[in-house]
Amino acid sequence: KKNYSNAKPMKKLLMVLEAGDALPSGIVRGLIYKDLFAQKGYTVRYISRIPPWLVRAAQNQRGFFSNAKKKGGKNLFKKILGLFYFFLDRRIVRAARGSDVVYLAKVRSAGLIRDLRRKTSARLVYDLGDAIWLRGRNSNRFFDTDDFDEILRAVDAVTADNEITAAYARKFNRCVVPIPDYPQLDLFDRQRAASSPKK
């Protein structure tokens, strides 16, 4: 860890989202705080590791990527994704050089975090939004558990969505803060106002 004892107040934040607003985590673990950051005087830049349009295209059941996957084109999609990661991760590191804090919301790359640690002086905060270390549907699809534990060790702090994920993170990092997901009540209220009482 780096020594930040004489650091100036931190006002420049780089928020790295795995896929912008294309995934729920990008909204409730990142974008939902946009107005709050502005009120508090923070300069926040948002960057997605994967372009949201690419994620939406992959999720489209009738789209090109869905058909390609059915025909055995999974490797093609992985190669396209790998190219985006290659170029966008370098862009993230460049942007981080002028930031006080880099907040990584569910970013699935130990390599990117190693680069950020090596090439920037920014404090690194990792958001652990799910119990992704557990074996199951999502486990080990994107990185080995060893890589994931390395991420938790390498960053300056970890935020977690509940006490269970926080307890796991504390095995590897002393600075862990639980921040529950917040429901978007303003969107609910707008939808309710626009709907008829029958709906």
What does this structure look like?
The chain has 199 residues and is α/β, with parallel strands linked by helices. Helix content is 43%, strand content 15%. The chain has helices at 24-28, 34-39, 52-59, 64-70, 74-96, 110-119, 145-154, 163-169, 185-194; strands at 12-17, 43-48, 101-105, 123-128, 157-160, 176-178. It has a 6-stranded parallel β-sheet. Strand 5, helix 8 (163-169) and strand 6 form a beta-alpha-beta unit.
Distance between the termini: 54 Å
Largest sheet: 6 strands, parallel
Using only C-alpha atoms, the radius of gyration works out to 18 Å
Supply the number of helical segments: 9
State the shape: globular
How are the strands ordered across the major sheet? 2-1-3-4-5-6
The H-and-E topology, N to C, reads as EHHEHHHEHEHEHEH
Q: Beta fraction of the residues?
A: 15-25%
Kindly state the number of beta strands. 6
**How helix-rich are the residues, as a percent range?**
40-55%
Overall residue-averaged pLDDT value: 80
- Can you tell me the residue ranges where pLDDT is under 50 for at least 5 consecutive residues? 137-142
Helix and strand composition category? alpha/beta
- Work out the oligomeric state of the chains in this entry: single chain
Topology (elements, then pairings):
Elements: E1 12-17, H1 24-28, H2 34-39, E2 43-48, H3 52-59, H4 64-70, H5 74-96, E3 101-105, H6 110-119, E4 123-128, H7 145-154, E5 157-160, H8 163-169, E6 176-178, H9 185-194
Parallel strand pairs: 1-2, 1-3, 3-4, 4-5, 5-6
